[in-house]
Specification:
alpha/beta; Rossmann fold; 2 domains; 4-stranded antiparallel sheet; 12 helices; 14 strands
Amino acid sequence: MTTEHGPSVTTTTTPRRGTRALLEVRDLEVSFATDGGVARVLDRVDLRIGEGEIVGLVGESGCGKTTLARAILGVLPTNSARVGGGSIHFQGESLLDKEPDTLAREVRGREITFVPQDPFGSFNPVFTVGAQIRDLMRWKSPALRGDRPPMGRRERQRADHARVVELLRTVQIPQPEQALAKYPHELSGGQRQRIMIAMALLPEPKLIIADEPTTALDVTIQAQILKLLRRLAEDHGVAVLFTTHDLGTAYEICDRVTVMYAGQEMESATSEAFFNHPAHPYTRKLLDSLPSRDRGLRGIPGEIPALVKPPPGCRFHPRCDRATERCARERPSTETLGHAHGVRCFHPTRPGAS
């Protein structure tokens, strides 16, 4: 069943959303020094992910999705990027206040892992897959955690190898021992991405950031990867931040969706509310632009603003048919419309309104 704005979402299982926040981003500001001036790439962005929750971060290309993911991981380019304000808290601790060495040793690649958009470019072509995974486990093995009983080097290597083989079977890699002996170019795109997902799970993380992980795959393999990622998140109790520009993909996998535009988050809601009761004018236009047999192709009039000199207030106001003078002056604060449904707009569509 579909609605005026897209696919209707019906919840048939018990929601897995955690009551406790695993990750909280508040009022985050990130700018980049460019030849044309300072680009304000993130403008007071908020994001929340609960334990065991899959949150989709959606928006057009250039809206700041990847920058937000990099800020959480602490891998923004130090020569051009600057965090101008806000906070990032993970498991109650500030990531922005951690020393870079501590962040790399204790959080990145261990508590928070990453699945890239291009699995082929993320492997070194001159080493076998097994050699690269063994190198990862030298530093990020679960056996190295402080809460685990100490192991000898050979004992840990055997335990790590057994876990690698087990996870490769879990992500449906046939004959995992043989796959470990292969070079990246000897594997298909889908197999490489499955191995990337397995590598992200190896350190037993609390959060996986998946940056458009199905973009480079064909449609059939995309569906398999999405199904696999959701099942693994459920089985392992790990939260996922899933960045994508594809609303259909977000519909398939996410518990909750946050939509961004030109470096500002516009709306955050459960998938059911997001697709059935969109509140922000940008969200509604974004869903209206989905291809439909009844209405054909629709676009959003106007252009995405340059981030070097972005419009003040709500950055969508030059393209919004509901905009007023206040929208051009002020950045709206978040208004709560229902359970886990917040919108930054002075003129939202409220539940029940057409």
